[in-house]
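Entry:
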Amino acid sequence: MRTGGDTMLIVRDGAYYQPNDDRQAKAGSIEHHVWLLTLNDALFLSPLQDPQRVLDVGTGTGLWAVDMGDRYPSCEIIGTDLSPTQVPYAPPNVRFEIDDCCSEWTYPENSFDLIHVRGLTGSVGNWPKFYQECMKHLRPKGYLEQLEFGIDIYTEPKETPYSDIIRSFGPLLLEAGDRMNKTFEVATHMSRMIEQAGFVDVVTKRFLWPIGPWSDDERLKELGRWNLKNWEDGMEGWVMALLTRIHGWSYQEVQNYRARLLKGVKSDEVKAWHDVLVVPFASPYTPFAD
């Protein structure tokens, strides 16, 4: 299906809301780079020493899985997504599979040292079930690591000529997700949901992503420069299906909204940012493990 020029993936009555075309793949590559800048080039924060088998759920462009394969050549990495992931330069220890993480998982139990989840906000209808699958398929000393973006945009100063348009972004996504029964309020609640699923040692780290190079801190300035590019290239794909299919907007209304919001966050009058949250090492509850 095509929506406003984008090829949309329709699986199980609209399970996925973002395009799966080359343009969105480019945006995904930029976002991967922003995550690497955020984590100081680390691919995971869990205290794993020698991972042997890793699952990357919602692998998208597959870049994280490929980087893992390059850094850990003795580790088997499986990247899954709803549509095919084709990375011609993937190392031999990396493979990609078409799979729906919201269905019953088909891997043997206790299979993985690390389950890596990034950017599934708005894609999962039953998070408790998803976390139970993670619990079931992690090895006793394995880790679940999840990284998600907060949907609310903050500004300094709080009141500007662009405040209304900037503040509208989060509520629009939240309402669309509620109508689809796929919440967009994942980042702020995932640690609680992970604990409720039975994981222990659940830690949450919060990072700031500037939108634009306005920070005096050189690292944040660089991160903001790339995140602005992330928004410029990725925003249309994030919102087009939600605003047209769920909210009933026209294609042109979405384009006008995108242009106005980007004009606001790029204004010299505005310092805009949003949060990203990471649960870096949640462990399965294994009271009798050594």
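The longest helix spans residues 218-246.
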